[in-house]
Amino acid sequence: MAKIKVTQVKSYIKRPEDQKRTLAALGLHRIGQVAEHDDTPVIQGMINKVKHLVTVQNA
Fold first, then answer.
1. How many CB atoms lie within 10 A of CB 51?
2. Helix axes 41-49, 17-25, angle to 10 degrees
3. 37: helix, coil or strand?
4. I need a labelling partner for 58 at 20 to 30 A (CA). Which of 20, 43, 46, 51 fits?
5. Cα separation, 36 vs 58, whole angstroms
6. Considering Cα of 35, then 36, then 39, then 40, what sign does the dihedral take?
């Protein structure tokens, strides 16, 4: 399965609670932190929800 790297590039301060929980579920807790995940539809949906706070690269 393909891997992707998700990097948090913006703060989650003053964001809705569901976006904060989505970032935590992705394993992101601070700006600049990188998490590696399998490229599945579930992960893509989570990324789409917080796409304004993260960047995505192929691993």
1. 10
2. 140
3. strand
4. 20
5. 9
6. negative
To the question of pTM greater than 0.85 for the whole model, the response is yes
Say which amino acid occupies 39. D
CA distance 22 to 16: 10
Q: Which domain holds residue 52?
A: 3-58
- Provide the number of structural domains found in the chain: 1
Q: Residue 53 corresponds to which tokens in the numbers above?
A: 């706070």
> For position 35, which CATH number holds?
3.30.1390.20
Q: What is the pLDDT of residues 5-22, one digit of tens each?
A: 999 999 999 999 999 999
CA 46 to chain centre: 7
